Amino acid sequence: MDTKITLAIIAAVGIAALSFTATSSYAAGNGAELASKNGCMACHAIDKKVLGPAYKEVAKKYKGNADAVAMLSKKIKDGSTGVWGPIPMPANGPKVSDADIKILAEWVLATN
Question: What are phi and psi of 81, to 5 degrees?
Answer without folding.
Answer: -150, 145
